[in-house]
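Convert to structure. Protein one:
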Amino acid sequence: MEPAVTGRGPSPDRPLLAAAVAGEARGTIEVAGRRTGAAELLTAASAVADRIAGAATVAVHATPTPETVAAVLGCLLAGAAAVPVPPDAGPVERAHVLRDSAATLLLDPGGGVALPGVPVVPVDLRARSSTSWPEQPAAGTALVVYTSGTTGPPKGAVLSRAALAADLDALAAAWAWTPDDTLVHGLPLFHVHGLVLGVLGALRVGSALRHTGRPDPAAYAAAARAGGTLFFGVPTVWSRLAAAPSTASALRGARLLVSGSAALPAQVFARVEELTGHRIVERYGTTETLITVSARADGERRPGQVGTPLDGVTTRLVATDGTGADVPRDGRSMGELWVRGATLFDGYLGPGGRVRPAVDPDGWYRTGDVAVIDPDGWHRIVGRASTDLLDCGGFRIGAGEVEDAVRAHPAVREVAVVGLPDPDLGQRPVAYVVADGVTEAELVAFVAGTLSVHKRPREVRFVDALPRNALGKVLKHELAAGTAGS
């Protein structure tokens, strides 16, 4: 049996809001140009907690505003499970989230939401309360975050306060994140990346936060000139920064650049290093596991690889054929990544508020992601087992390897490879490409120089843009279903 890969040790046991309640934050919290001190934010959040006291589950209309930060913090103070609702959610999705979570209130930072059947509570950042809220049990639910729902209706992942605390402490250790930092990002506040890492992380560590409203390279550059030290972004942000040399140069004074939520192309990694002097730290996680694998601030960074397990996290690589056999950590063999540790969610929210566990009896969560692990424990994420592991004529093909080969052509800006049904091969690799001045035959001939015959795309389809979600992940199911616009 191939041994599992384990992080160095458990995270410290400390209440989730210890730093915020103790007034340890040294900097201000700024969201979309509006700034407030940590102490003022805490009293505004306490006023929110006063208004929702006794509610078990509270939805939050998660706009990129300081009111959203106060709303989520108020839920945590009061011991209510906060349910972030995307501000651009359509009526069907919003109704599903509210119904499925059984939220009894909706906190509205913007003051314009009206929903039948659910009382709406406005959030006023000027409100103040001196109520002293006791620390809630570590096992209590902090957040119910709904997954993207690419294979059905979004599911509510139940995240405990203990899981959030363990993950944030492990990340602080990995990234040398301290109260002296100023965190900069412009990520949505209804996902783990923007809300947990990007807001609760700053509050737990005690660092300043500058949320730019949108993940715009010019805004990141301005924040860097103003003293920003730690920058979070998705690959789309770094790709746009790489295309703007004069803007990118402003980030030379930063301490650390971190990328996540999707794979970072090696070309973008290299270009950002050229322009800023920084080798980007890549990390991996899911809504259900939080962040589990990362490169370190004091260690090496490898393009296309996401590092090693965080403190308290163990990973396994398991065969995708249903046998449960462990896959060798040889840097070549692909398998499904399994994760175990203190950062895992409690399960999915089920009928009647019951939580349905999603780990096996030994505590392993099957991520559904395909990975390769080097002998020294470094992980490379190939993609989703459902969309990125192709069965072509008896061969197993990783879509990511094909995408890297196509993307290396200088005319290609974006590429996504999916397996489409084929009566002879089972699946045939089809590349959806955003490019200028290159033909299908030229691309196929180009990748022939690096890929085996069975791995080469059988077809190239040129599109104007690839469909993506709010975090920049390509929606391959739309490409496979033929529902993506061109």
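Protein two, convert as well:
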Amino acid sequence: MAGYDFDLLTIGAGSGGVRASRMAASYGAKVAIAEESRVGGTCVLRGCVPKKLLVIGSHFAEDFHDANGYGWSLGAASHDWPRLIAAKDQELARLNGVYLRMLHESGVSLLEGRAKLVDAHRVEINGQQHSAERILIATGSWPHLPAIPGIELAISSNEALDLPQLPQRVAVVGGGYIAVEFAGIFNAFGAEVVQLVRGDTLLRGFDDDIAVCLAEEMQKKGIDLRWGTQVTSIERRAEGGLRLKLKTKDAAAPSLLEVDQVLYATGRKPNSQGLGLAELGVKLDGEGAVVVDRFSQSSVPSIFAVGDVTNRMNLTPVAIAEARCLVETLFNGTPQPADYENIPSAVFSQPPVGTVGLAETEARQRFGAVDVYVTRFRSMRHTLSGRDERTMMKLVVRQEDQTVVGCHMVGSDAPEIVQGLAIAMKAGATKAHFDATIGIHPTAAEEFVTLREKRADPPPPS
């Protein structure tokens, strides 16, 4: 638009920001994207991709062990952690190059440096101001560490992905998806892992059967889960390692813990500080998230936001979907809000979790009467491996019309299986549709179409 340097200036070159910028440029807009670090964002550089590579690598330990049950005789296996980290870094460098090439080929200008808003249409980067008709905030989120004595000795998930050596004793603080994923990674590579959970369950907000099943399976693998436990301070020991002072609900539980490394995974906060948003009157919530309407517009009409910085649903594919809807609205004349119903998600714990739709508790609150189908079984793989690992599958069905409103799984390939179920749920599948579907035999996935016995309803609250 006349009078502005750009039609759209995006701050943050992560998944959401890059998608919005490239799409806007494809519709003829003049677009720039500002980034103070490498292009790629949390998912590519500090989250989904490097974490999944470590998860994949860690699984070989069990594969080698289980092969014995199938007649394989293997020599002693050893692992080279620095070599894995180097290979991971090489892949991230490749992906960073891919993202840079995509921006260049799309005609998006890359402005390198930290951006700060000057007013509703101007951004300053490295002392130079750039104007834009519209500004998009896509700066994601950042790990949050509590203010306790010695917290500077702890690491977050960012640093956990770049450790030069595998620590032998690790404390993981937190019970959310990042905590259980890294607990599984370190444990599988051979570290002693103690996971300190403030509450009495894992994965708060997920279905209760997922939380219970995952905790049981993690404990079988040797992870020391300690409930009702908080760290009050961290100190470095003269002889090496760290000492954690603990506050526990159980008076008989140990009050000290000595480890080589402590990883905090107690939450992330929107990365909105220092951008000049509040000074311009952009409304932020108590966590610092940019408050937006259903079309991702902030309280300042020319400023928009997508992804984790809005703290709506913090998943990479959601940020990409929000970006697509925003660009369709602003640059293609087809206004559309993002759809947050039945969004599938996964936790790459060990074993992994796949889920889509409502947890049983949420479904009962929303619909009242629901039918619940649950099964737990040992997969065929472990009939010969001898491993005592069990899979859990669950369907939650709205009773009035038999629509499936929740699918949940803990077990091998759960994310891959649940992705397909998400399509069925998006199409409004009923339990009858599941029952009429022929299963692929022998697979774990076929259990979702052979569930017949309803679980009894819980007793009413007294």
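The chain has twelve helices and 21 strands. Residues 151-266 form a domain with the FAD/NAD(P)-binding domain fold (CATH 3.50.50.60).
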